[in-house]
Specification:
- This protein is mainly alpha-helical.
- The chain has a domain of 107 residues.
- Helix content is 60%, strand content 3%.
- It contains 9 helices and 2 strands.
- A two-stranded antiparallel ribbon has the order 1-2.
- The longest helix is centred in the N-terminal third of the chain and has 40 residues.
- It starts with a helix and ends with a helix.
Length: 177
């Protein structure tokens, strides 16, 4: 009973935090877009190292299990290797997995039919965690090499992921352009 009340409180608190995140991210979207445009034109040599360091800092204080907003609101891209691996784990044929869970989006990528992710449990754990798609493993992509190549994706992720938002906020302070 006490645990249920605590989980409900955390859920309400996280819901409010995510609502504020969306508001802040929308409010800072133009500023972030301008900042990223400048980064793209003149990419600092230290960008990847700086972003990786900020990623480590932010994720020391981030508990994705408290949020799971990415799993609740967006679909990862499923590559053929992901489909084969997950289907094998679920003891399904890849074609049956695709038919049950995926569709091809406007970009020609396999994505989930529904949100939240059907593999997300009520406690925000992933039932296929060890077999999850590469896109899930790398999310929010704030520790990738060639960070300048995913600035548009990062801008979108600031609307979804509190950690991505915080990395970008800190990046603007660490590398003013």
């Amino acid at each position: 009973m006490v645990r249920d009340m605590a989980e409900e409180y955390l859920s309400e608190e996280m819901t409010e935090r995510l609502r504020r995140l969306r508001q802040r991210a929308k409010g800072e979207r133009k500023e972030n877009k301008r900042y990223f445009a400048k980064l793209a034109r003149r990419t600092p040599k230290t960008l990847d190292a700086t972003v990786a360091s900020l990623h480590e800092e932010v994720f020391q204080d981030t508990d994705c299990l408290q949020c799971a907003n990415c799993c609740k609101t967006t679909s990862p891209i499923f590559r053929d290797k992901d489909i084969e691996r997950i289907a094998a784990h679920l003891k399904m044929r890849p074609g049956a997995f695709v038919e049950k869970y995926l569709h091809i989006d406007e970009d020609g990528d396999y994505v989930l039919n529904v949100q939240p992710c059907p593999f997300l449990s009520s406690d925000n754990y992933c039932s296929i965690y060890d077999h999850r798609p590469l896109a899930c493993r790398e999310y929010p992509h704030t520790d990738r090499k060639d960070f300048h190549k995913i600035l548009g994706l990062t801008l979108e992720n600031t609307m979804i992921c509190p950690a991505a938002f915080e990395v970008v906020k800190r990046l603007k302070m660490a590398l003013p352009v």
